[in-house]
Design brief:
With 181 residues, the chain is mainly β. It has one helix spanning 13-19, and strands at residues 37-39, 47-49, 59-68, 71-80, 89-95, 109-113, 116-121, 131-138, 145-154, 167-173, 179-180. A hairpin with a 2-residue loop joins strand 6 (109-113) and strand 7.
């Protein structure tokens, strides 16, 4: 019988919320064979494994959003500007209006409430191709505008020296035009 090891795991509330959707790469780390996880405070989900140097990577989101007749079209591209590869990243999209109940999301996304959607990106190579998710959503009613807040809530524990490029606030009037972020 092997020796038992004590393990302490610290996970952010956002990572727990994302993990409830059973999404691979959701931020819940098995520390049983890798040591104790501690937060570095450098960014969303930032941290290091005890005794190891922090990984540095720069998750970034960009895309566009359009609103017309109570429909929202969202293109979310997540990339990594390096210098290290990322196992993945999770973005939170918060909408200023409720979204219609019962809509199906792409496999990479899950609901976090009637105004929040979480979307994960797969493995992201440093300076590699972006991971892209397309959302076709309906709002409750036909609003004249919608505000959308986009931010990284999990980046695999990497230290992100440029967190500003993964946070966006987009005002989207109901014109049908593309609003780029």
């Amino acid at each position: 019988m092997g020796a038992m090891r004590k393990v302490m795991l610290v996970v952010s509330a956002a990572a727990v919320a994302v993990s409830l959707g059973a999404m691979p790469g959701s931020g819940v780390v098995s520390a049983a064979d890798s040591g104790t996880r501690t937060g570095s405070g450098a960014g969303p989900g930032a941290g290091v494994l005890a005794g190891r140097a922090p990984v540095e990577a720069d998750a970034a989101h960009h895309g566009h959003i359009s609103l017309w007749g109570g429909r929202l079209a969202v293109r979310l591209s997540t990339g990594n500007h390096g210098p290290s590869d990322l196992a993945g990243a999770t973005a939170r999209l918060g909408f200023s209006v409720p979204l219609a109940f019962g809509q199906k999301l792409p496999d990479a996304c899950l609901w976090g409430g009637n105004q929040v959607v979480y979307c994960r990106a797969g493995a992201l190579r440093a300076d590699g191709r972006d991971s892209e998710v397309l959302l076709d959503l309906r709002t409750v009613g036909d609003p004249a505008e919608v505000s959308v807040d986009i931010a990284t809530v999990w980046n695999g524990g990497a230290d992100d020296g440029n967190p500003d490029n993964d946070k966006h606030h987009v005002l989207v009037p109901a014109t049908g035009d593309l609003y780029v972020y």
